[in-house]
Amino acid sequence: MEKPLWRPDRNSQIPLHLQITEYLRDKIAGGEWTVGTRLPSQRSLAESFGVNRSTVVAALGELAAAGMIEGGRGGGTKVVNHTWGVLASTPPPDWNAYVSAGIHYPNLPAVQEINRSEFHPGLLRLGTGELSPELLPREEMSRLLRRMADHVPDLGYGEPNGDLFLRELLASRMNSQGIKASPECILIVSGALQALQLISVGLLQRGSTVLLERPSYLYSVPVFQSAGMKLQGVPMDEDGLRPELVAPYAKQYGGALLYTIPTFHNPTGIVMSQQRRNRLLEVCQKAGLPILEDDVYRDLWLDEPPPAPLKAGDSSGVVLYMSSLSKTLSPGLRIGWITGPQPVIERLADIKMQSDYGSSAFSQRLAAECLSSGMYEAHMESLRTKLGLRRQAALDSLQRHFGEGLAEWSIPNGGFYIWLKLNRTAAPRKLFDAALKQGILINPGHLYDPEAGNRIRISYAYASLDELESGLARLAEIVASL
Amino acid sequence: MEKPLWRPDRNSQIPLHLQITEYLRDKIAGGEWTVGTRLPSQRSLAESFGVNRSTVVAALGELAAAGMIEGGRGGGTKVVNHTWGVLASTPPPDWNAYVSAGIHYPNLPAVQEINRSEFHPGLLRLGTGELSPELLPREEMSRLLRRMADHVPDLGYGEPNGDLFLRELLASRMNSQGIKASPECILIVSGALQALQLISVGLLQRGSTVLLERPSYLYSVPVFQSAGMKLQGVPMDEDGLRPELVAPYAKQYGGALLYTIPTFHNPTGIVMSQQRRNRLLEVCQKAGLPILEDDVYRDLWLDEPPPAPLKAGDSSGVVLYMSSLSKTLSPGLRIGWITGPQPVIERLADIKMQSDYGSSAFSQRLAAECLSSGMYEAHMESLRTKLGLRRQAALDSLQRHFGEGLAEWSIPNGGFYIWLKLNRTAAPRKLFDAALKQGILINPGHLYDPEAGNRIRISYAYASLDELESGLARLAEIVASL
Ligand SMILES: Cc1ncc(COP(=O)(O)O)c(C=O)c1O
Ligand SMILES: Cc1ncc(COP(=O)(O)O)c(C=O)c1O
């Protein structure tokens, strides 16, 4: 459980432990901590309140005396009664049963921990899949916000497919990449992740199988599994997914869809060659197997532009294509899009209307301003230079600290990631915990492939150059010591 | 299928019908209209292209000659081949099968039609559940956007629970309504609808039953049904839901959750009395039946503030409370929130992270600016006056046109709606179509209660005063004529 954000007032006349008693009593009596809730440990409460442990012990004593909490034999303390001094005659619903009853899978514990830890200041994040704050175009955004003030978007509910102006801009962007997409065949979504979510509940039957690269980003989000689908990994090599395996795998596992990140793959950084792309399209067309192309890293090339999207070579509508502005411009904007056959897009738009009535009008308008003002292109130019330097620094640090046989890696041509392969194996959980203890947050390989226990996803996009150097140095020590 | 947005260029040297041929060919060859797709009718194509029907016929003739489309015996025209002049050797995946295979229910056809029709300019919308553009605070938003330009929010991925500053503001707002909610027990969502979506997949088992008022807004969105739950209506009277029926219904139908809109209920406008609230809480506490309180209309009182939320009287954590800024400030902002027991909120936050990685940082910051600057309160003051006038105008028009025994209604004390009861019955679909033909979009009662065929939801929030008068006049004629 997250620790409370409140702290007692040191200037108050009321003793600290009584302030804490009152605060906790309110939390219980107000129903935030229902009967059955397990309290955070005394140590962590003391830490979050900024007091001595003995003060917490005194406060908990008051609550225990009043019959509200009880120390369990197992060590933990639980809420047993929500009223002060009176035995509750009617217990509340058993929320814990509800929490575990839903049909949606929880995130992997490691992913939950990463999601939370990312907001603990001071942590050194070596694997985070987003741009460092210093790489985000704050000043340009500020300029565009001022411009938007003169063109406030429509404040009402929006069209099912999203802001038309934004869709037109995206259509012409995609056109320049070889993709023919009309605005009515584009759906604006709240990030690429939402596109996956909509597809998982909108197009596939429960029990069907999604083929995907192994490893893949998709292993780290249980979006398809929660909708009752299975994932089946298909091996890759240095040119990407192996197309000759797709038909046999589809046959053997009954694949209903192939999810692929052909360009600057997450987590390996691999770019699928043009030949492979042609072959993959052929194979899928022949097998009648739809492709979902996730292209969120395309614009992040560092050496040369990547081959055209699969969708550009698709003349029969076998490819659904999705991308977003999260990796290049701003994840907080939550703007992505998907294009494909019109009936598919209309189906997904209908479900989107049922899920959240469309994406933020402000985000959509701001995204449109970024694209139409030329800001996006200018930003990408300068971003590529900076990311290139970061990549070099990360490779140098890796060479310095992991070069002597501790690990192996390839050099990515774009995107954010280096898929580090450790030459020794350590239990992934152990490595994660040991690093976290030293203030380093890593993204262990098993998040992206259950069997990649000896891999770590390194990102050169997030940590500062200094942090990359010191973090990788410390990480190498930890690896060597385990 | 939505009609194309493109129009041929009348100044071009290329004949119109050839431009159209080329446009449609690209749509088919590019995979937007896959093999099997049914084309819009000739008439509707002619309309959307702004040409004579004969021009469309000529263009379709070219495509048919090239073997790309074929007129069916049933009248419709279908795509049969995606390449020009060559028989396709490999058909694409059968997307239509995918579109109908997903586990998510489509919106009711009438709701889909309403969603789409709302963006056809010129339609007179008598039932729309949102503020008219003229009631939305565009200028104030423009001012706040300018302010935001000096405080650009964090552009990165956000915290699982949402922007902390916004959560603190909401906590203190709710506090003033009698609800004790700490920021760590609040989850920011993309509108109240998303809260429903998260709850449907996060807390309830497939096959369980949600109790709700009959009629209810919830009947118009298949969010719970798509997650495999059933809805069971509980009768209301003029004081709201009848609490004495809750326990027996819960027992008989195995209710797992009670969804209620106690304040300015959608679609009836009813406010649950204080006594009922106390009784309902008691009953649910006793039965261990969690309540989901949807309070999106609370601030829209016109005569006097409504009783405190159910959540304010909840000392054992039986109530999950949700609200949003859509009905008062801006639906396009897509900002809502939910509060309740901490483990429940953390579970929902986890699923939210899996669905879209959090709501737009810009919308969240703008919402916070609205609340913290005092703009929200000032806007509500003036909004109440304007809505009060609109309510009066709508009641006057109703009296004029439906007063002579054509319909009955009650006077709402706030919110948007009048739940009109027709004294004659007409097939709802017939009424909807007849009204649409005359350019009037209505929200028929059966959207909110499958058996309320003789009801219409009238909203005094959307249409202009003139439109309300002329629309209701015409509607009365249509009703009388059926
Ligand atoms: C391959 C891939 N797809 C989708 C996403 C999600 O992106 P968004 O922020 O647009 O939802 C990510 C982010 O990690 C990603 O790596
Ligand atoms: C009772 C009720 N709840 C929720 C919603 C959805 O609101 P939001 O725009 O915040 O998703 C509506 C809108 O029609 C409503 O009437």
Automatic annotation (TrEMBL), chains A, B:
**The organism sits in which domain of life?**
Bacteria
Domain HTH gntR-type residue range list: 14-82
For this protein, the record's SMART domains field holds:
HTH_GNTR
Instruction: Read off the CDD domains from this record.
Output: AAT_like, WHTH_GntR
Matches recorded under SUPFAM superfamilies = PLP-dependent transferases, Winged helix' DNA-binding domain
The UniProt keyword set, sorted, is:
Aminotransferase, DNA-binding, Pyridoxal phosphate, Transcription, Transcription regulation, Transferase
Stored InterPro entries: Aminotransferase_I/II_large (IPR004839), HTH_trans_reg/aminotransferase (IPR051446), PyrdxlP-dep_Trfase (IPR015424), PyrdxlP-dep_Trfase_major (IPR015421), PyrdxlP-dep_Trfase_small (IPR015422), Tscrpt_reg_HTH_GntR (IPR000524), WH-like_DNA-bd_sf (IPR036388), WH_DNA-bd_sf (IPR036390)
Q: Which cofactor does it need?
A: pyridoxal 5'-phosphate
Q: Which PANTHER family match?
A: HTH-TYPE TRANSCRIPTIONAL REGULATORY PROTEIN GABR (PTHR46577), TRANSCRIPTIONAL REGULATORY PROTEIN (PTHR46577:SF2)
**What gene does the UniProt entry assign to this protein?**
yisV
Q: Does the keyword Lipid biosynthesis apply?
A: no
Q: Which family does it belong to?
A: In the C-terminal section; belongs to the class-I pyridoxal-phosphate-dependent aminotransferase family.
* Record bears the keyword Iron-sulfur: no
| Protein name as it appears in the record | HTH-type transcriptional regulator YisV
